[in-house]
Design a protein that fits this description.
The protein has about 450 residues and is α/β, with parallel strands linked by helices. The chain has three domains: about 130 residues, Response regulator (Rossmann fold); about 160 residues, Rossmann fold (3-Layer(aba) Sandwich), CATH 3.40.50.300; about 120 residues, no CATH class. The protein has 18 helices and twelve strands. A five-stranded parallel beta sheet has the order 2-1-3-4-5, sandwiched between helices. Helix 6 packs across helix 7, helix 10 packs across helix 12 and helix 13 crosses helix 15.
């Protein structure tokens, strides 16, 4: 196995032995570094040292035992090979119990040295690669979940940890606090990332909702001559996001509870439950607990969904995040539109500082989109105005902007409703309602 780690720190006060070890490892194509004592070695080694340490046990001043203890404190994953004489064998064995990688008992030949060193380097290479991957995942989370406030840092850390588990996850927050975004983020960084993500809007289920969720066998539905798998089975091996689960009708709550309890689902008209492997992430408004207390939402289902719960606070309580969130949305809008970054005018800056952001992240995203569109000469960012102004003109302005933005998104998506829905973070029904309101037809935006 080839490694990117090739440094070998040789720590020995015996000049002749140190030179012999350096020469033997150089002939092996490695990068040995010689140190006459422990203090000298510690000054050159840190927790990201791209190699291993080979140290003699008996040295003046700080001996090999003390050096190992210092190195283990700095980086417990740093392989340390102990060189020992016959009389020091019990000490070497004790150091291995405490985490030393291996020991070489004098006298030893260069072949034994090279074999031991290469095994230790392979281990070190694996450790450092895992650290790089972990750091990259953390950086990706920081890019995908903007925010510098202490609460956002804590939420980001919790999401990253929960992405590595299989627990059901409940995300609670006001509309626009990023619940759906967090659900998708957890899926993208989970072991199920390559599998299907199915989002179910519990407030916009079709009339035959049970068949939509669980599927049906042949002949179980009027006109249903062919069996259907249902939304939950389509997510097998993947993740289901139950968006606005607090709106899930009571008659359907047992369907979800059975999936969580039994890991199986019974299609409508079928007698035999079908095993299903999926992770459920649910989002809800802050009133879910009140719904449970009032008997509108199943208490047992609530506790099953809340295997882990994250509360997303409104943006108005974390003002430090507004600028970073605006910057993230601005970059997304620029990338989507394929335009240079716009000049952010003083009116937008003032709004960022003073707006109460009752619409949370949705409102910040709308401002970022407006800013980019204004830079293209399409509309202009809304000017902050006094409360109680001309409501009719404000509504007209919002409607005009909404229509323009919908046209822009539909054009970029070439009339693909699913793509447009994902860009806008809207349920399909809501998007169709808005399109109907503005007289927009998907077919007019499709490639010809």
């Amino acid at each position: 196995m080839s490694t990117t780690c090739d440094a070998v720190a040789i720590v020995d006060d015996d000049l002749h032995l140190r030179r012999a070890l350096l020469q033997a490892l150089e002939l092996e194509g490695l990068r040995p570094l010689g140190f006459a004592g422990a203090d000298e070695a510690l000054a050159a080694i840190d927790a990201q040292f791209p190699g291993i340490v080979v140290t003699d046990l008996r040295m003046p001043g700080m001996d090999g035992t003390q050096l190992f203890a210092r190195l283990a404190t700095m980086d417990p994953d740093l392989p340390v090979v102990i060189i020992t004489g016959h009389g020091d064998l019990p000490t070497a064995v004790d150091l291995m119990r405490r985490g030393a990688y291996d020991f070489l008992s004098k006298p030893f030949d260069s072949g034994m040295l090279a074999a031991t060193v290469r095994r230790a380097l392979e281990k070190r290479d694996l450790v450092l690669e895992n650290r790089r991957l972990r750091d990259a995942a953390q950086a990706a989370f920081e890019q995908e979940f903007a925010g510098v406030s202490p609460v956002s840092v804590h939420i980001r850390s919790s999401l990253r940890s929960l992405a590595g588990t299989e627990k059901p996850l409940l995300l609670i927050g006001e509309p626009g606090t990023g619940k759906s975004h967090c659900a998708r983020l957890v899926h993208r960084h989970s072991r199920r990332a390559a599998k299907t993500l199915v989002t179910i809007d519990c407030d916009a289920l079709p009339e035959q909702a049970e068949a939509f969720l669980a599927g049906h066998v042949s002949g179980a539905m009027p006109g249903g001559h062919s069996p259907r798998s249902g939304a939950l089975r389509r997510a097998d091996q993947g993740t289901v996001v139950l968006d606005r689960v607090d709106r899930l009708p009571q008659r359907l709550q047992p369907v979800i509870e059975r999936v969580l309890e039994d890991g199986a689902i019974a299609p409508l008209g079928g007698d035999i439950p079908i095993p299903i492997d999926l992770r459920i992430i649910a989002t809800a408004d802050p009133g879910l607990q009140a719904d449970v207390d009032a008997g509108r939402f199943s208490r047992s289902l609530y506790h099953r969904l809340a295997g882990a719960t994250i509360e997303l606070p409104p943006l108005r309580t974390r003002g430090d995040d507004i600028q970073s969130l605006f910057g993230l949305f601005l970059k997304e809008a620029v990338d989507f539109a394929g335009t240079p970054f716009p000049v952010v005018g003083p009116d937008v800056v003032a709004r960022l500082r003073t707006n109460p952001w009752l619409g949370n992240a949705h409102e910040v995203k709308a401002l970022a989109d407006q800013t980019v569109l204004a830079g293209q000469g399409v509309g202009a960012p809304a000017q902050p105005g006094p409360v109680g102004g001309d409501n009719r003109s404000l509504k007209d302005a919002v409607a005009r902007y909404e229509a323009e933005y919908l046209r822009e998104v539909l054009a970029k998506a070439h009339g693909d409703i699913e793509q447009a829905r994902l860009i806008l973070s809207l349920p399909r029904k809501t998007l169709y309602d808005k399109m109907a309101r503005h007289g927009l037809v998907p077919g007019t935006f499709r490639r010809r």
